[in-house]
Amino acid sequence: MSKTRITLVVFLPSLVVALVLLHIYIAMELKNGLQTNLEFLQKRVNDYSLAMTINARDITRQVDIIASLLSSDKNDDVTKILEKSMQEYSYVDGLTVAIDPDFLKRLQNGRFPGLDLHQRFGKLEVAGVPSSLVLTIYRGENSSLRYKQSFQEPYTVADWYIVPKMVSEPQWLNPFVSPTTGRRVCSYGRPFYYKNVFAGIVVSFVPIESLIDPRGVKLPSRNSTDKNRFFVLGRAGNVIYHSDYAKWPKYSLYSMAEERGKREIFTIIDSMIKNDSGCVKTCSLAAQVKYRSNADTWYVYSSPRSQILWTVVGAFEQDDVLSDWKYSLVVFALGVLLMMIVICSVIVFFLFRAFRPVEEMIRVAEKIAAGDLDQRVDPRFANNHDTTGKLVSTFNSMISNLRGNMKKAVNASTSRLIIENEYSMAQELQESFLPRERNIQRPEKGYSIGANLIPAKHVAGDLFSYWNLTDTVEAVLIADVSGKGAPAAMVMLEVITLFRELANKTISPSETATRVNAQFTSAGAAGEHLFITLFFAHYDSETGRLQYVNAGHNPPIIIRNGKELEEFPYAKDYVLGVVPDYVYTCEETTLQPGDTLFLYTDGVTDTFSHEGDQFGSDRLRETLLKASDASAETLLETVLDALDQFRGTQKEGRLPNRDDTTILVLKRDSQAHS
User: Fold this and answer.
1) Which residue from 179, 105, 169 is spatially nearest to 138, judged by alpha carbons?
2) CB of 669 within 8 A of CB of 630?
3) Are 438 and 450 in contact (CB under 8 A)?
4) Nearest CA among 77, 71, 91, 74 for reference residue 204
5) Comparing C-alpha atoms, which of 230, 274, 281 is closest to residue 44?
6) What distance in Å separates the CA atoms of residue 546 and residue 479, rounded to the nearest whole number?
7) Looking at the predicted structure, is the pLDDT value of residue 186 above 80?
8) Tell me: the pLDDT tens digits for 362-414?
């Protein structure tokens, strides 16, 4: 692997990690910074909602008293009660008692002889019983109280009269401009009944700003230092009150959404109207990271609905928070990048040292393939007391033996002997890298393994291996190198070496395969025509968990509890040695007690008979089902016997293997704990 590729392989993932860390930090800072501001916002909104609720309760109590008096048989003067209420609640603009015309007709016809209309309303300006009657007390100039009597009927079409009458219960109505005072007022109307007959409406008119806070504490308006916005929304989502009086009533949340092109705000408004309370934001987390002063990100808090069924709403612009954290975010980002540069530099340094022997062997192997047998791997690399050092020593020894034997090839018989010796050495070398024990029993860990490799020639391009990563985790590898003979065997040795060097318990099988592929392809070890299919897995003997990566290999088969076959999905990942920067995916399954994992290369299914028939997947499944409950060793021997019989009997002569045949069986004991 070139230094440039190693640097890219290390730095690119490190850069991704740095960006992820930076994103997490920014999200945490935003959360902490917004928390304090949101608490302040929520407190202000709840204070205004509470004030509106308290004031509304006082007004409803005032109107209820007047309505109760009008519903009684007493002929007390109502005008005195109205005047007393106006003096007690200085923020009320006016009180109105409107008598229903139908009730007046009944009174005129003598249906209620005990009711004295003139005594209840002082001295009326007309004698007898009028056809309609509205008595209003309101504040005139210098807050002086004035009275107004009306004997016209238009009040019967006013909202403050019609709505309470129709629903037969008290109602708060949206603000309107009072014809008496010229101010924006809202009304609370309550129907009253005399002897269970609808008699009229009692209405209180209150300025909207006084209802929200009669003590003169006004809601904050938007300026250069305070970007909080407060609204009061009606039951239909209309703006009942806004902190900026100049924009009322044309300004609304809906118009703001249309102006800014933010249609999602409509959903938020609907949520505030329907729900009791809560805090929502108008954009996702990714959109919050904006370092522009015009970032359109808001947090909106709505209070629980008041007695009036109106909702107080506060909106908070996120740019105020981001401006306070810009400096710390930049400093942190620079610190993370500097730290990653230092870490990556150290990693690259050690990677150069770790991969130099493998690079050197690849270079020498290319020279030898071109016919230069005088090449040697630097002996200093053989001093390493690890698998790489062993491979270097064996590699140099093999080159020396090969060169010496070829010089002795003076005749055909000697040449054949040399070749056989070389094949024998290559076979011994290959065998030295494969597990010594082909059939192992590990009852203390609850599983057993059976494996075998039958080369089509003297040496094979297939491989299998298994080794302990931890006390409970076993690494399992089976692979098929394209081609056969010595070239494929050399590649096989390198693949086993890379997997044993790079695999460890802290990374997944897919990450190991990704690293091996990057090393294998970038160094040119595969040549122009060699590639590898493989299946590599981590098996946890305690839980039966099997994490694996399948790089274009035959789908393994699981024999579930000795009864049925379950075939893995076909491989989606590329074979090894094709795409240098390919990232492999990790899959997972579980071996239950009594389950058996059957791994094989295509030499099994590609076995042919004398008639030219292929053994195929169907015959393999039938063979597995016949010995489905057998041990790992027995199942292995059963499949191998079936292949031998399929190739022909001893009498007619068995056909030789056309391809390397490799099988690995892992069986979880039925007594193993799940």
Assistant:
1) 179
2) no
3) yes
4) 91
5) 230
6) 17
7) yes
8) 777 777 767 676 666 766 666 665 666 666 677 777 777 766 666 665 444 44
